[in-house]
């Protein structure tokens, strides 16, 4: 489509809501992963539900692809506009519309970031627990069913998104879910849209469940001689029902990278990073229990971190893991595997992944939300080197095959985007055709984020 | 359709899997509510997924309605075969197929009852927490997204059904969800089928999350001078984050009915029935905290119940509430309202419901899962007296209108069935058309439980 005519179609927007500049289009052509594709033809910045409705009505009428864009922190190429068209940048819809402390509910626009939301909640003694590390937008987190370090205690986005306002491909506006804590009314469209990666509709309002800030928060590091002992100990702790708020495996390679870039002096061994939330009394009981149990499983040193500054450093280290790992390989790009398996399978799955990295000689390190059975291999690769890319993809494929053979999923939290499409048929079998039929039903021309999630290869 | 030919269509089943007897058909024509309708033409008893596939293929080809039937304990006419056809009795598919203690997972056939499952889990130190009171089948509980007294701590069915095997209307078999604790792969069909009330498919296998039996369980009764104080105290307790496993409002009328039928001598005042789950140390802390907090909110007496027999009596009393209430009105039938509202709205919603019962002079009593914002008015009515029925429906309508006006839902846990259909358009707005489109997509001839949930009036 000719460039000038495209911007004319959206002349109902104000000039500052439209960009065709090369730098803005380039910025909207990729996320934080190795996936690359074309630039969008145009970037639009809606400021209201009504803007989104008019943009989608126009795009629907003219069959123009629309790719919602948040903070650009996705890891599977979700925001790459593989068929060009519109990148729909939601970041100017970033108002926090309502905070209801008595109901533990908040209503936000999708461009609100996780950290901005938590800043606003803090004065009410509340926090939003879902924490993927990156300062993603709530819209993006909803679109991928993001989770992260706190999910073992508080659940993923799906457990915490209570209602949505969604603009469908044809511009219809619907509301899904309920502000009530539970409902058995109608079909549960809410959970269908959470994790739909922009392929079923564009979110314009999101109601979230929030939580009271715990009376006391204590972090801890638990060191282990090797990865199998570390994973086994984590699964034993969760299996015993010890209430942890975070339990993260960090392998020695990540620890070495932290130390180098952050000036810490953590021992370079496989480590569990833990966090406990509770009352002043209860939390000490939980920590003592955890320490004893991890000791039985081979923990060589357990260090409780009560100081808030030290705790912040610890979680900054954890959250920057992928960044500091990648910083060791200037010019290379990041691939993250993301399988999630039943807890009893986790030790074998991590051992298998470790072997796969070694066998293919890949630059990789392992980190994991081990309380959920979810772990990542961060792999540094050169996407322009076919050999390197092929080896990285082979590692990913082997890790996914192991997970699927053991009742797991190819993606625990990053979502499918481009990178996990190849595994959808294998994971879902005949259910994939039902998913595709729902996609066609709600987006008959396939304008919403085409080429992602359940879309077939062409 | 002529009777004889119908049974011939299913001659691939064994004779004991088919019944056309009047008593069996009558038994499959109703649930535990006031809803009444025709009898099914035939009752079929599948014993395997393959039986279900062949039955649905045949029904699909011949456009015969199919109504899945479990324990018959529904409360909104879900199993009433309003268009006759087949009642598909799932109770012979009641095997517990797999218990995986290390993964906190179990796989059951849909006819497994809640109590049978918990009997089998006990020897592994596990339990399944969702507890609607009745000894429903897991299939029926999945179909209505049932919850009950434990949901405030453990969630409803939707939070605890991890994967499903589903036979679609045309006989296709799909698998939804994953055995992993979380997944962002594909669309979340799992949550779409949970709560679909037999209108999207028939469940043949259900994978559930289960929990370790708590180290210590203590129940308690907290007495209050009036209902507003009782509800206010419950919302304050939950708002303060005190970890309760159950928190149930029982009004004085229910208490009086218990005492009469169960020989208890509970004071006839509005009461909270509570339960705490935890470690021996932690639970005492929780109970002390709860007692202090409820005292501040006007609790006149707090009685902890540590003895297991006494605790069992207390929950038997709670679970038999509707039965003992109805036993006071021989010949009358039961209507239960089921709204769920944001917690801050609950005191006003219960007060409003109480007034509505009084104003219409209905025989009613109030009980509630107040930690979730969910409460029921049990109403005794004569469905053959148009005046009585009209007044009961007016009370229900007023209670629902209040809930919907305050961000709530018309049904927190019983589901829509026949009785809440009238409120679907009001609650869901334009989303109802999306629900109906999904229904038409998966069941183009509308053979699966027609006339329920999202189906339009005809």
What distinguishing features does this structure have?
five-stranded antiparallel β-sheet, 18 strands, 458 residues, Alpha-Beta Plaits, Uridine Diphospho-n-acetylenolpyruvylglucosamine Reductase, domain 2, 20% strand, alpha+beta, 4 domains, homodimer, Uridine Diphospho-n-acetylenolpyruvylglucosamine Reductase, domain 3
Kindly summarize this structure in a few lines.
Two copies of one chain form a homodimer. With 458 residues, chain A is an alpha+beta fold.
SSE diagram, text form:
Two copies of one chain form a homodimer.
Chain A lengths: L2 H7 L8 E2 L2 H6 L14 E3 L4 H14 L3 E4 L16 E4 L6 E5 L4 E4 L5 H9 L3 E2 L10 H7 L6 H4 L2 H4 E7 L5 E5 L11 H5 L8 E8 L1 E2 L3 E8 L3 H13 L6 E5 L1 H11 L8 E8 L1 H17 L4 E5 L2 H12 L1 H7 L5 E4 L9 H14 L3 E7 L4 E8 L4 H20 L18 H5 L2 H12 L16
Parallel strand pairs in A: 2-4, 3-4
Antiparallel strand pairs in A: 1-2, 5-6, 6-10, 7-11, 8-9, 8-10, 12-14, 12-15, 13-14, 13-17, 16-18, 17-18
Helix pairs in contact in A: 9-11, 9-14, 10-13, 14-15
Global shape of chain A: globular
| C-alpha Rg of chain A (nearest Å) | 22 Å
Number of strands of chain A: 18
Which residues of chain A sit in consecutive blocks of at least 5 with pLDDT less than 50?
Answer: none
The spatial strand order of the largest sheet of chain A comes to 15-12-14-13-17-18-16
Structure class of chain A: alpha+beta
Largest sheet of chain A: 7 strands, antiparallel
Any guess at the CATH architecture of the largest domain in chain A? 2-Layer Sandwich
CATH fold type of the largest domain in chain A: Uridine Diphospho-n-acetylenolpyruvylglucosamine Reductase, domain 3
Strand content of chain A: 15-25%
CATH class of the largest domain in chain A: Alpha Beta
Q: Helix amount of chain A, in percent?
A: 25-40%
Straight-line N-to-C gap of chain A? 20 Å
Total discrete domains of chain A: 4
EC number (chains A, B): 1.1.2.4
Protein name (chains A, B): D-lactate dehydrogenase (cytochrome)
GO molecular function (chains A, B): D-lactate dehydrogenase (cytochrome) activity; D-lactate dehydrogenase (NAD+) activity; FAD binding
Keywords (chains A, B): FAD, Flavoprotein, Oxidoreductase, Transit peptide
